[in-house]
Batch of 3 targets.
Target 1
Amino acid sequence: MPRVSARPTLPEIDHQLHSAGERGADALFRRGEEVVRRLTDPAELRSLVEQVLADETRLARIAARSYYHANNFLKVVLMGGAGDTWKLRLHVWHPQPAGATLKQEDVHSHRWDFTTAIVLGKYHAREFGIAPGEEYHHYNYLPVGDSRSFSLVSRGPEQLRTVFDATLPMGTVYHLDHRVLHSISQADTEPVASVVMQGVPVRDATDVYRTTRIGDEPTTENAVHRPSSALLAKELVQFLSWI
């Protein structure tokens, strides 16, 4: 008799998260953590990605809300609640040439608490506090949403000090409060990926700290590059070759 797979389908995960969201933030947090932990299993993650590739309608919907993030990774929004109440995302950092200088993402906070799992490779994670230290340019980041750009509003200079610095390996699962200032970068030139379950937004903008200033205007608009369905399919096929 054929063995029946216990792996959930995309619609089942979508339904579980929507149902949890209707019961409140705590239920959504618990269910989201279960989903994220489950996807640390490469077989589970592969099954999820293969289901996306097999459904052209879903693939197009995912491509329309995904984009190449300014912090050096491809942000794939797999599913989300109505009104942007929650999202399940896949973040992918591409491999770099041997000897390449690895880019550090901007220090930032978030609009929501989140749970994340490193499902491929390893990354360098740092957290910061506002205290005498290195000087940065502080900006308020207004989210992308469905638009083709995001806004950065200058707030002037600020000093930050590193309070946590570690390399986190594949399989690591952790939670982060929306207020924590942090940055992530690849630990080496190999590909890296994480699954992120973002919770309910609790504020309208986030903080971004850059070591270099962006122009001289108080507000800058920054274009967002979204993949086509065909390009996203190519990216996901490549991702499957790495896991």
Target 2
Amino acid sequence: MSFSIAGKRILVTGGVGGVGGGSVRHFAREGANIVALDIRDEEGMLLAKEATEAGPGQVTYRRMDASSTIDIRESIEWAVDHLGGLDGILTAHGGPILSWAAETPESDWDWQLMVNAKAVGTICQAVFPHLKDNGGGSIVNIAAGGALKDGPIKTSSYSASKGAVLSYTRSIALEWAPYKIRANCVNPVVATPKDDQIQALMTPEERERFRRQIHESIPLGHMGDVETELAPALQFLLSDAAKFVTSQIWGIDGGLCPAANPPRSSTL
């Protein structure tokens, strides 16, 4: 069975920066046709241009606000029409808002539950009929190791929102299996520009503790690279080679958080 995604029609939400952007570039090099959905228009147009020119895949950028249910549905309908159908989707949008659990404001809860969790459900619901009509396909939702651990740094509400993604993904994997629609989660630990933004909000002591934990907690000793260490695994899950893989939680994290026995001391 081929690991190839050449010719696959794929949507990537949060498809401009970090995990999404690096994955879009990798998928395009592997020959997939992609619509990248995000809110960073200038960066998105540049990414689409550069990735398409590098080829052989084609990348189109479309603005989509993951906090708007209406915008999600309209954008996905447009994207699927543009691609002429759908084979798979990677949800890589959203992110954390840092705060201690005792101090998390309601607005932070609302945003993270809406964007990180509810939007994933809305997106999956919107792509369901298209994957069903396609005779099956692959849904890959980016979650977080924090959803399986009890020692985050100021990310309890974020971890809760990603825990919802894990549960939801396993639910749709069961419900939609009769239609040959596969659904899996990936918990990545990779270096992205967002890491610098997160660390900028930490105290010097928290920042040093965070960096020390990277080296002490990850058995392979470093943060992963999106394009060379994460995206190839995502490619497998989107390819026909993974046609018997569903309802799984993949830790692409250098061994940080084994799903069956999550470490209690890590703070990543």
Target 3
Amino acid sequence: MTGARAFARREWGSLYGAVRTALAAKRWRAVPMALTAVCLTALCQLVQNQSWGYGPVHGLGSVRAEDPLWLALLRTPLSLFVPALDLPVWGALAQVLVVFGIAEICMGRRRTLVVAYLATLAGTTYARLGIWLGPDSPLGLPGSDARVVDTGPSAAVVGLAVYVCFRHRAWLTMNLVIVAMVVEVFVKSNLAGKEHLAAIVAVLLVCAVSSLSSRFSATSSGASGTSSGASGTSSGTSGTSSGTSEASGSALAHRRSGASGGGVESGVPPIRS
């Protein structure tokens, strides 16, 4: 039991502490963006299930690989909050609330939005690339997927989960998320599953760049500190040398003064006539 507690503390301690502190201090005010995303997703689900609402919602938020790229990019921000019609909306709402909320607390609103949209764009871009590669390629997609409506927050949720685990060093959890998405593709090889993998790849690249940047900054800071220390040592040595030179000059002047005054201080008796 002690080993399990130690593992849980090592794996989720930092993450749990950050979330608990924020919720204890601000309660629901700690996650305004996540709550807004949940309400927007629920609203899109409600409207698109109306006879009058399906057209406007999908005209503004549905993305297909066959659409022009500029139109897909314009629709991508809202497409993140349009849940898929063939999946239960409660699952999407729970994912958005939990994952977006944790990410908002741990990373801030701006970074959460950037990672979420990066993951979504990675999936959208992969869909076009996969159709171009064709079904014969291991990374390709059949041409019929060009007409599949590509909406929902799942790619953003997966990308945020991986990035939050990376930031808080929850390595096992991050690997479990990745393995689960890989298994999903093997069990049911469809557009959504492969887009999840594309989102993971994009976020892992961001993690790698962030890690390399941190290491470079640490190395530069260490080199700067070493250089400052060497400069201080050199200044100290210079000061010591200067002090020694001044002391030698004073001693020499003192001796000359003694010689010109009759040699009393020099210890040489004066010459008597």
